[in-house]
Amino acid sequence: METPSKPKRYLKLVGKYLWARGLFTAVGGYMIFSVLLYAATDIDICIPCLWTTLFGYHCPGCGLTTASINIVKLDFVGAWEANPLAFLILPAGLFFVYRDVSGFLKRENAHSPVAA
């Protein structure tokens, strides 16, 4: 039996990871897509703040999407003005995603047979 090449094996693991975290993949993928689309073309399909929509005043998280868009545009001052919390939330989120992916890969490698 032929062992798959490294890129095919990694692609299969990425697909397995994304499938295992379906809801997070869908919501996170949509958020990333909408931020990049808005930053590149000014087409706004971002999810509005539900707190502001329902209650009429801003929550502490309001402006995080705007700050993310400004970071993608390399406008760090605008990002800070939109919501300074973005400079804490975004790196923390990236860290937790990295930790989750690396833990998943360790578990998968522990269960996969060693190629001879």
Report on the structure:
The chain has helices at 6-20, 22-41, 50-55, 64-72, 76-82, 86-111. Helix 2 crosses helix 4 (64-72) and helix 4 runs antiparallel to helix 5. The longest helix has 26 residues, at 86-111. The mean pLDDT is 87. By secondary structure, the chain is mainly α.
Secondary structure elements and pairings:
Blueprint: H1 6-20, H2 22-41, H3 50-55, H4 64-72, H5 76-82, H6 86-111
Helix pairs in contact: 2-4, 4-5
Note the main sheet: none
First-residue to last-residue Cα separation:
12 Å
Poorly predicted runs: none
Q: Based on helices, strands and strand pairing, what is the structural class?
A: mainly alpha
Mean pLDDT: 87
**Proportion of residues in helical segments:** over 70%
Question: Would you list the SSEs in sequence order as H and E?
Answer: HHHHHH
Strand content: under 5%
Total number of helices = 6
Shape verdict: elongated
What is the number of beta strands?
A: 0
Tell me the radius of gyration: 19 Å
Short description:
The protein has helices at residues 6-20, 22-41, 50-55, 64-72, 76-82, 86-111.
Give a quick set of tags describing it.
116 residues, 6 helices, elongated, mainly alpha
